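Hi R.,

As promised on Friday, here is the backbone we talked about, encoded as structure tokens. Could you run it through your design pipeline when you get a chance and send me back a sequence?
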């Protein structure tokens, strides 16, 4: 038959449960992170000797709770590591994309400048062509020999 739990053991169990709860919630008072949840850590958080958690039946529930909380914390820590790894990977990809975008922006600006310069050059060439055609028309109209030579060369009179 089970012996009744003494007031001393009940107080110890209460302190150990409170310590486990603080550790599980990530709000320890005595233990500094990072930490693993285990019997030794619970005892240290409760400011008790590591042998405080006995193998007797009265402590069986506490030992089970410690195992469950340890597994949960390991799962959270593992998910957090994956999350951090994914975060770093995404950060690297974003940095790479920013660099590529910056290079593309520079290339686009260079292309716009080149198009502008070519447009200015085209306007200048068109103006030069217009002036040359006016000059040629003037020369042809004032010099019939030049007009005849240009017609023989395949350039019909612009004035006709």
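Update: got your reply. Pasting your designed sequence below so it's all in one thread:
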């Amino acid at each position: 038959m089970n012996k009744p739990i003494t007031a001393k053991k009940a107080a110890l169990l209460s302190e150990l449960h409170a310590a486990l709860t603080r550790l599980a919630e990530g709000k320890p008072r005595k233990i500094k992170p990072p930490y693993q949840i285990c019997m030794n850590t619970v005892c240290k958080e409760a400011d008790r000797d590591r042998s405080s958690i006995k193998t007797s039946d009265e402590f069986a529930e506490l030992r089970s709770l410690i195992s469950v909380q340890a597994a949960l914390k390991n799962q959270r820590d593992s998910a957090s590591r994956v999350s951090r790894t994914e975060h770093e990977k995404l950060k690297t990809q974003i940095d790479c994309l920013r660099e590529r975008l910056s290079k593309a922006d520079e290339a686009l600006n260079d292309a716009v400048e080149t198009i502008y310069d070519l447009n200015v050059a085209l306007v200048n060439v068109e103006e030069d062509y217009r002036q040359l055609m006016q000059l040629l028309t003037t020369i042809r109209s004032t010099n019939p020999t030049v007009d005849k030579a240009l017609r023989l060369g395949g350039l019909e009179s612009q004035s006709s």
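One thing I noticed while checking it: The longest helix spans residues 60-142.

Thanks again,
M.
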